[in-house]
Design a protein that fits this description.
The chain is α/β, with parallel strands linked by helices. It is built from twelve helices and ten strands. Strands 1, 2, 3, 4, 5, 6, 7, 8, 9 and 10 form a ten-stranded mixed β-sheet that branches.
């Protein structure tokens, strides 16, 4: 009995010390806006949140613990994606988020749907990966051109998404507006379900390949992807300059046995200038450490293309500044002169 009491006392003392240490270390919550569960932003955002977190009381990195920012608890939140995320960051409702480069440009410079709403608080942490624009069709259905969408039931992505902003601009270049299609504002998973049920004739979605909801659709009901003509790619690029020519390779989706001519936009991790320089420096440093590399390489197909050497790809053309904390890190490691 005496021995058990001694062990209990030692355990309580140990817990008290650990609790005091945890309390001494400030807990910082860091919300990351992502996208819908059926897309790519949500799983990638989850990987990033896991990588940069290191809650109070955790084992140190050099002792097998998490190698994130000490005291940081990052949370990946499902949202309506790009446009929602930049708006929430500007409003101080989130600390960071993922967004397409086109949406970031529009939001920072107050153009397109952000006209008159310019709040240049947005700052870049890193370019992440290319997001390919998918125009999904029921299996066996074809379009002669984008103009054939007139009169059809078309998913244009959810309200508050960068995809919707870009798609409306691209369709307008083809003479297509909400007046001559039956548009549906749905997220990726909802759109895939409507295609499977015969309630949509087509839907657009931009995301890093392969997309979970499309994999499921392809493996069940089947699907086809529209291949843009060269003239349509050129017109779409003119309408939305940050969407550039791209190809979804044959076999990306098992049932799509041809290369798909399309466009892609860079997915970007952004924050606010209101976030402390030292915090974002530590977040950026954690994003590119060896432990994070392992998480990205094994966690998602698009995680493998998130590389330090492309972290600043295309950033200059956006005319949106790096956050000073991120800039400090990139200069420190020689990526930025």
């Amino acid at each position: 009995m005496k021995l058990n009491l001694k062990l209990l006392a030692a355990a309580v003392a140990g817990l008290t010390v650990m609790g005091a240490a945890a309390q001494a270390q400030e807990m910082i919550f860091f919300r990351i806006g992502t996208g819908s569960a059926g897309g790519t932003y949500f799983p990638i955002g989850g990987l990033i949140a896991n990588a940069i977190s290191n809650p109070p009381g955790s084992r140190p990195c050099d002792k097998g613990g998490n190698c994130g920012v000490p005291g940081l608890v990052a949370i990946a939140q499902s949202t309506n994606a790009s446009a929602h995320n930049v708006t929430a960051i500007n409003a101080g409702q989130m600390e960071a988020g993922l967004t397409g480069a086109a949406t970031l440009y529009f939001a920072y410079h107050g153009t397109a749907k952000f006209e008159g709403k310019q709040k240049p608080k947005l700052r870049v942490i890193a370019n992440l990966f290319p997001e390919d624009l998918h125009l999904v069709l029921p299996k066996g259905k074809k379009l002669g051109s984008l103009k054939d969408l007139k009169g059809k039931r078309v998913g244009i992505a959810q309200a508050g998404s960068g995809t919707q902003i870009a798609v409306e601009l691209m369709l307008a270049a083809q003479g297509i507006t909400r007046d001559n299609i039956d548009e549906a504002e749905l997220n990726n998973s909802q759109s895939a379900e409507r295609i499977a049920d015969g309630q949509l004739d087509a839907y657009f979605y931009a995301a890093g390949t392969p997309v979970a909801a499309m994999i499921q659709l392809d493996n069940t009901k089947g699907m086809d992807l529209y291949s843009f003509s060269d003239a349509e790619v050129k017109a779409s690029n003119k309408a939305v300059p940050y969407y550039v020519p791209s190809t979804i390779k044959m076999g990306t989706y098992q049932g799509v046995k041809y290369d798909v001519n399309t466009l892609a936009v860079n997915g970007t991790l952004v924050t606010s200038i209101d976030q402390p320089e030292e915090l974002i420096y530590q977040v950026t440093k954690a994003l590119w450490n060896k432990t994070t590399r392992k998480l990205l390489d094994t966690g998602h197909a698009k995680g493998k293309v998130i590389r330090l050497e492309t972290a600043l790809k295309g950033i200059e053309g956006l005319d949106v500044p790096l956050h000073p904390g991120a800039e400090k890190f990139y200069k420190e490691v020689g990526v930025l002169k």
